[in-house]
Amino acid sequence: MARVVGDSLVVNVARKPGEEQIIDLMRLFNDNPNKTIVVAGTVNADGSPNTAPLSLIYAKDPKTLLIGTLRNTTTATNLRREGRVSLEIFAADDLVMGVQGTMRVVKEPMAASDAMALWEMRVEKVKLDTSPAQRVIQGPAATPRSEKAQEFEKAIIAELWSAG
């Protein structure tokens, strides 16, 4: 059940006053470069929803994510137009959270690839989205399609980290 738990990437999800159950989304992203896949939700010009997977994410600080996306996608077009985004995270140990905020392009194209843009997301709201009926035991998993794809990922990740 969705419950707002804060406005930064480090949140206390405990339900009882005085208790602490800290979830550090900064560590989730930074300790697992390009392994945490999120679903990004944006709004198309006609008001319809758009979703897309993203994984090139670096947490610069508790209120800021740096994200690499392809430049010529519906998601990038929507972000340029209005900037609002919601990222939904599904990870092991029943970690299901939404991060909402606004994004602005920081660098386009990225040095590592003309096809990519570097975005900065200002975190505005973090919500706990666990289900009372289902326990998430693992998040989406992926592996590079080729050595060339692996080198591409490494270059983008290095640029995200250096921008932070």
CATH architecture: Roll
What gap, in angstroms, lies between the N and C termini? Answer: 33 Å
In CATH, the homologous superfamily goes by the name Electron Transport, Fmn-binding Protein, Chain A
Cα-based radius of gyration, to the nearest Å: 16 Å
Question: Structural class, from secondary structure content?
Answer: alpha+beta
User: What is the CATH C-level name?
Assistant: Mainly Beta
Flag low-confidence runs.
none
Q: What is the number of helices?
A: 3
**What characterizes the major β-sheet?**
8 strands, antiparallel
What this model shows, in words?
The chain has one domain: Pnp Oxidase, Chain A (Roll), CATH 2.30.110.10. It is α+β, with helices and mostly antiparallel strands and 164 residues long. A hairpin with an 8-residue loop joins strand 9 and strand 10. The protein has 3 helices and 10 strands; from the N terminus they run E-E-E-H-E-E-E-E-H-E-E-E-H. Strands 1, 4, 5, 6, 7, 8, 9 and 10 form an 8-stranded antiparallel β-sheet that branches. The mean pLDDT is 96.
Features:
41% strand; two-stranded antiparallel ribbon; alpha+beta; 164 residues; Pnp Oxidase, Chain A
